[in-house]
Every structure is written in C-alpha cells, then in structure tokens.
Amino acid sequence: MGSDTETLASCTLPLTACPRCGAHLKVDRDQVCCPTCVCQWEIRDGIPRFYNPGYYWGEVPREEASSLLSEARTLGWRQAVQERFQHDPAVVYSILQWQSRASWLPLLGLNDNAIALDIGSGYGAITQALANAAQEVYSVEAIPERIEFTSIRLKQEGLSNVRLIQASATDLPLQDNVFDLVVVNGILEWVGEWDLSVPPQEVQLKFLRKIHHMLKPGGILLLGIENRIGYNNFRGNLDHSGLPYTSVLPRWLATLVLRRSRRTHHRTQLNAKREYRTYTYSELGYRRILHKSGFGDLTFYAADPGYNQPLSLIPLQRNALAAHTLRRISEPTQGSRPRWPRLAKFYLSRLGFLRPFVPEFVILARKDGSDEISG
To answer: CATH number for the domain including 48?
Structure first.
C-alpha cells in the first residue's frame, strides 16, 4: 500500500459517509472530516480510525496479537504467523490460507471492476482474496491489532487496491448503493453484543438493512454463519456464548445458563448482564430475517468442514447432500473411524432429514435488481 505519507496523500475515501449525518467525508492531513456536522476522526498509520473499542475480541490473547505485529514487521507476516502459532494449526490456517477461506469466489461471477467490502475482516485473509479478484476493496475491522496486521500483510504482498477502515460493524461509515459484494463472515451472530441498546435481533436487522442499502442493485451479500440447530450443537460443541447447548435452548433459558456460569469466555468478554445475545438461526430463520432486511433471492450452501474452511460447498438439496456424504464415507482420510455415524448421515440425507441440521452455512443473498453483479 506504499508509505504512510503516500497513503494519506491518496486517501480520498470516495465511498465513505459520515456515520452521524450521512454526508460525504473529506481528508484533511491526518484527519477525516465531515463538512456538514463537523465531526472529525483520526488517521493513524494510514488507517482512518472511526472507532475506539473498549474491549478486545480475537482468536488469540491481546498480548499475542501485539507481539505478532512486531514480528510481522521484522520476519514477514507469513513467517511470523507460522512461528507464533505453530502449535495451533487452526489459527495458522485461518490467517494464511486466503484462497481456501474464499473458495466461494467463483460462485459470484465478479467482474474485474467490481467493488467489494469485507466487514469484520480480522487478520485479512478474505480481504487478500478479494483484493486479487476485485478492482477495489474496502476492509472494515474494529480491533486495532487485527487491522494493523492486515495493513502490514497487504504492504508485503504488494496489494494497493484495499482501503482499510477501523470502524464498528454497527456504525459503518460507508455510502449507499456503491458495493457489488459485501462479505460478512462470522460477524452477524456477534453484532448483538456490540449494540446493547435494543434486542439482538433488532441489531441484526438494522445491520442487514444497512448492508442492503450499501449494495448496488443486483449486488450480493455473502454470509458465513452457523446453523442454530446444527447437529454438532446437540453434541456439545461450544456456542458463541462460550458454553455448549445455549444455541439450541430458548433465548431466555440460555441467558439463565450464562448467568449461572462463571466460565471465562475464550475470545472476548460478554455483556455485563450476561444476557444471551449471540443469536444464530436455522435455515428458515435466516430466510425470514434476510427477507425482512430486503433480500429476495437467497441461495444456501452447506459449508464443509465449516464456513471458515469452506473446502466443499454443497447446495441444500437432498441429492447433493447425499452424494457429498457418500464421498466422505469412502475417503481414505477417514481411516479406522467408525462407519456407522457416516452411514447414518448418508441415509438421513437420502431421506431429506439431514438438511435442517447441517452445521454451517454459506448464504448468498442478492439485492433485487439486475441478474448479474455489475462493476
């Protein structure tokens, strides 16, 4: 992305809008300014800082995230990740494997002149994939350590078509009708924790409606998220609450369970009231909330092994799910693992009973308009 001086000189932020009044923003030296309501935000290290979080959220503790930044500058971002997280292959995969993380890109048919937005971009894997596929990318992340790592990553990769913005997903400083693609990967379930003023579903609806406004006609929202009633949740997988089973409980009961638990959360600190606010939904639930948000054309895929590792994307159709399950049964990598659970999944998929319980989704939601993504 060039030096900080070059970044500031070219930082016109053409698609940004004041999160307070909606006016177009301008850059004045080391600040972003709203000429209408006179609000100002700092630009630091070439990144406009619209948000100063009073919390930390991340795959690793904050101290490790800070150490990773300095190591990325001296060793290079790839080597820094490999050395620091050599005993945590899941974290290494999530940061390094940018092509696999965005295996859904060929489904979208993006034009070369498309403009994409990555909300909650983390350490920049999906942002890097989008930068190699679109003309211009806006990458929004709230946590300073994560977006600063992405800045180092992009500079070292020689990618100059990305505009980084530190901002909250619930207060996006971006214009309407400007994006061909908006990626929301593992974020929708969390926005209820980031705005405590109204019930979680209202926060999610407001967030999705803002995305709908930001998309051009015919633009696509790509949503990666868990299934509330995925079969893994009935087997004790940890929910976003940090506890097992809370996703499948009634919301009020999940809140009671959270308030009785003193377990430390593995990623963040939940709201002080310990109210259950990390809402996920079933396929039907996602269809309802997306329709309420203005999206009419929806396509669902089962993501295997998950939306963060979408190595296989299977249409939610009985024959497709059965064929995928049959392939998995015969894979040599399964070794001596018991066959009966996989056979049970196969027969359930053949009968159409597996579809409601697939663990994770990749969802494509198109804004009504033209049939193709335009640039």
So the answer is: 3.40.50.150
Using the Cα atoms of residue 88, residue 89, residue 91 and residue 96 in order, give the sign of their dihedral. positive
Those residues with Cβ within 8 angstroms of residue 232's Cβ, 6 or more apart along the chain or in another chain: 359
Residue 338 domain-assigned?
Answer: no
303 occurs within a structural domain? no
Is residue 250 situated within a structural domain? no
**Cβ neighbours around 142 below 10 Å, total:** 24
Q: Please count the structural domains in the chain.
A: 1
Alpha-carbon span 244 to 337, nearest angstrom = 24
Q: What is the domain range of residue 15?
A: 4-226
Reported pTM: 0.92
Strand ranges inside 45-119, DSSP E: 47-49, 115-119
* 248-262: pLDDT as tens digits: 999 999 999 999 988
- Per residue in 21-61, pLDDT (tens digit) is 999 999 988 999 999 999 999 999 999 999 998 888 888 88
Residue 332 token pair: 């040599």
